[in-house]
Design goal:
Order of helices and strands: HHHHEHEEHEEHEHEEEHEEEHEEEHEHE
Pfam family, one: tRNA-synt_2b
Strand order of the largest sheet: 1-10-11-12-15-9-8-4
Distance between the termini: 54 Å
CATH superfamily of the largest domain: Bira Bifunctional Protein, Domain 2
Number of domains: 2
Oligomer: single chain
Strand content: 15-25%
Shape: globular
EC number: 6.1.1.11
Structural class: alpha+beta
GO biological process, one term: seryl-tRNA aminoacylation
Low-confidence stretches: 1-41
Mean pLDDT: 86
CATH class of the largest domain: Alpha Beta
Keywords: Aminoacyl-tRNA synthetase, ATP-binding, Ligase, Nucleotide-binding
InterPro entries: aa-tRNA-synt_IIb, aa-tRNA-synth_II, aa-tRNA-synth_II/BPL/LPL, Ser-tRNA-ligase_type_1
Length: about 425
């Protein structure tokens, strides 16, 4: 695909400067690497790249790239070496916003509306009393970390989706329904690896995967497209099921906090390089407005380099206070990916002067449903198991509280001989 390649057509500058030109918006090199000599390699440039990788605690593959470049000097027409270089360069992360490089390993708090954290019952206990959640005895037919939402909790899930999408439509987001099965090259182009022992991707076959977030499908929608500058920023929203192969055994992440599949409302934007920081701030503000209207107690963190995914130049996390768990739990994030994804997927825009430039992309989670359910239930539960809902959800749900569900007979596995 054209969008997955970089073309290096001349070596008038140091080779590595040419390959890693504008490092903060890294993308993959092409099959047009030409002969070069040892003096073309700029070690200072490589050290800067390696410093950024180590700062982000990303896998350091610069030594591998150096070795491959040395081999290519000796065999400049070796297609396999060129292919290996493409793969390794594709693994490099984005650059890092200068503001966050000195944060250490903790996020910088930029907002907190919960100055007096309270206590409460855990989500699982409230749901057990209301009989609206089932996670036990499912392994023989639904798999590990599966769950059933029942009664009013299932209705609340749909209400959260409707509430979020309604808000986004009023704020000029265009809605798209996206596929859940994507080619692996689209997922890789978004900055998530589909190979290796620690990837979070479910692979259907060698070329197709289940999507971990609709961000990937939305980015794929614009692959090889040219957008007129006057249409930017172009803001898109989608509801999808998200599939994650990796879960956690940590006690604080039990229940539906971290699961293999869940519903999520995602925001995505294609914009110019001058707009991407502004778009990121607007995504953060959108998320904050959504959660304030739900009466949630939360804080916003400007995340340090070690917490940035491969594609993110800058990222905000939003954590809600979960009274039952007595902890802050991430319910949302938003990222500025600059042109990291656009250069891999060949997403461009045309300026008023007719110039073609690579676009910038940004993304944000408007509603990760399972974690919002936890935050809402633990924050609004009162005596006798009654859960009163925020005003914004009452009209959608046609109720002001969650009612106790009729008890369904427990199911038992019966062996057949």
């Amino acid at each position: 695909m054209a969008g997955t390649k970089i073309f290096i057509n001349k070596l008038s500058r140091p080779l590595v400067s040419e390959i890693f030109r504008n490092y903060k918006t890294m993308w993959i090199i092409s099959n047009h690497i030409k002969l070069f000599s040892a003096h073309n390699v700029n070690e200072i440039f490589l050290r800067d790249i390696e410093k950024n990788i180590l700062l982000r605690k990303h896998t350091n593959n610069v030594p591998v790239i150096k070795t491959l470049l040395q081999k290519l000097r000796k065999c400049p027409n070796d297609v396999e070496i060129q292919r290996q270089i493409e793969i390794e360069l594709g693994k490099l992360p984005n650059g890092t916003h200068s503001r966050v490089v000195n944060y250490g390993e903790k996020g910088h708090e930029v907002y907190n509306n919960n100055l007096a954290p309270g206590t409460g019952e855990q989500f699982s206990d409230v749901c057990k009393y209301l009989n609206v959640l089932r996670m036990e005895h499912l392994g023989h037919f639904a798999g590990h970390k599966s769950y059933y939402l029942m009664g009013d909790l299932a209705s609340l899930e749909q209400s959260l989706v409707r509430y979020t999408m309604s808000y986004l439509r009023k704020n000029e987001f265009k809605l798209i329904s996206v596929p859940d099965i994507l080619p692996s090259n689209i997922i890789n182009g978004c900055g998530m690896q589909t190979e290796g022992n620690r990837n979070q991707v479910y692979k259907i076959d060698s070329e197709e995967c289940l999507s971990g977030t609709s961000e990937m499908a939305l980015a794929g929608f614009f692959t090889d497209q040219v957008i007129e500058e006057q249409c930017l920023p172009l803001k898109i929203a989608a509801v999808s099921r998200c599939y994650r192969a990796e879960t956690s055994g940590l006690n604080e992440e039990k229940g539906i906090y971290r699961v293999h599949q869940f519903t999520k409302v995602e925001m995505f934007a294609v914009c110019s390089e001058k707009q991407s920081e502004m778009v990121l701030e607007s995504f953060k503000d959108t998320e904050m407005c959504l959660y304030k209207q739900l009466n949630l107690k939360f804080r916003v963190l400007d995340m340090p380099p070690n917490e940035l995914g491969a594609s993110a130049f800058q990222k905000y996390d939003i954590e809600a206070w979960l009274p039952g768990r007595q902890m802050w739990g991430e319910i949302s994030s938003c990222s500025n990916c600059t042109d990291y994804q656009a250069k891999r997927l060949n997403i461009k825009y045309k300026t008023k002067d007719g110039l073609l430039k690579y676009a910038h992309t940004a993304n944000g989670t408007a509603a990760a449903i399972p974690r919002l359910l936890i935050a809402l239930i633990e924050s609004n539960k009162i005596e006798n198991g009654t859960v009163y809902l925020p005003e914004e959800l009452r009209n959608i749900l046609n109720n002001s509280l969650l009612a106790r569900n009729k008890v369904v007979p427990s199911l038992k596995l019966i062996k057949h001989f």
